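Memo to structure team: turn this sequence into structure tokens by end of day. - J.P.
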Amino acid sequence: MRLEHLERTADLAPQSTIGNQQLTTSSRLLQALRRDPVDATPVWFMRQAGRSLPEYRALKERYSLLEICRNPELCVEVTLQPVRRHGVDAAVLFADIMLPLIGVGIDLDIVENVGPVIARPVRTAAEIETLRPLEPEADVGYVLEDIRAVLSELRGELPLIGFSGAPFTLASYLVEGRPSRDFLHTKRLMYSAPDLWDTLMRHLAEIVATYARAQIRAGVHAFQLFDSWAGALSVDDYRRYVQPYSRMVFDALAGSNVPTIHFGTATGALLEAMCDAGGDTLGVDWRVPLDTAWERVGPTRAIQGNLDPIVLLGPWEVVEREARAVLGRAGARPGHIFNTGHGLHPQTPPDQISRLVELVHEYSARENP
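Reply from structure team:
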């Protein structure tokens, strides 16, 4: 698995217009991702499908997360639950960032209240070489079937967002074996065996790029790369050990005509470096004021964010104040997508989410000429 292969994938004929042509109405989300004027600021939420909704929790009493992902009928239901309840401007495919690793044979379990747990962490040259290329139809065919089923149910009325974990975030799970606070094994590998780290990250960059291209061919209208753990790194370490491989993924998607979003948590120090890695839109968490982030990354990027998701657990007057502050910092500039600065918390009252969507639409509609 080499960089040359990733570069060649960018030359493949774009397939994403298939999904875009299915939209029967103009999409606020796609307009904003392309920094075009909108009638109101689009809203969607990371983890909008799932744990904050009682209808999802009822399903989880009978099915595991992976069982839902592997059943198109269940996946459609869970993906569309927040669309029906909240009136968001996009559906986001219900999936897990670890699915491509499961597809290539990694023995892992997604443990409730823990996260992904790898049976045998990957830390040696021999273990890394066992990572084979992803074959989408054979390895994650159910994800592609899920996408097609969701698009059929959406009937062109809303766009569908696909996503994947970024190479570094997947590497951190593989090397640590489970979620970590200090990333001891990951950083030790980076620092002590940079050639081995490069091999691992190139393997993962190709897996992620192949997975993303398959989702785009299946019809997703936008794609988000999650680098959930990049905030554990210094700017220099990010540029040396992470940026080249995320760039490989975005380069592989060039020419697909599908807007891309690059998101990480606790990455305030990394905004410029993440922009250099790629993505049409930068997702910003709540630790950096949105207008400051936009000034740092420049006017050629759209910005997504950035309400602290825990605000939604507070009284409505606080939610309203903070949401208006985010919109005020956006200043009605083209290219703002309203989102929380990370996934919705399981304890978030669903009515708060619905009210927030209404507030953003109504307030921004008055602000947008």
